[in-house]
Amino acid sequence: MTMRFGIITLSDRSSRGEREDVSGPALASFLQAENCPVLKQLILPDDESALRQTLIDWSDADDLDVILTTGSTGFAPRDIAPEATRSVIQKEAPGLAEVMRAESLKKTKHAMLSRAIAGIRGRTLIVNLPGSPKGAVENLQFIFPVLPHAVQLLYDDPDSEASH
Description:
Layout: E1 5-10, H1 12-15, H2 23-33, E2 38-44, H3 48-60, E3 66-70, H4 81-88, E4 91-92, H5 94-105, E5 118-121, E6 124-129, H6 133-143, H7 147-154
Helix pairs in contact: 2-6, 3-4, 5-6
């Protein structure tokens, strides 16, 4: 099954052109190596309403299976990814965020400061990832093996039972 991805980088500085976005391209590179097309990629400031609207638009267009956000998941006052995501999802997918934090804790104690969440809007899975390129790709690698099955389930694919 080919999964279709969108990537949203959240960074005030990158959105203003003051700093190069390296996390979005790192995620795109990983996905391309896995033969997963990245159909949409965007850099937004740390703005809750802008992220909320983009998540709604991209999910409701029904041309993406998974939307990854990178950045804005920590404790800083402008870190808004979890709040924006929570406001648009219809179901949470806590196991994904739990695995990302648990595996990240094996590498750094700072993982416990992540507020990242994952959830479902319609037939689209939305996952918050850290803002660092290394952290973003590692966290995606932790959950990537189950994403094809998750997408099958979202589409009520009768073949989804075969992988149990």
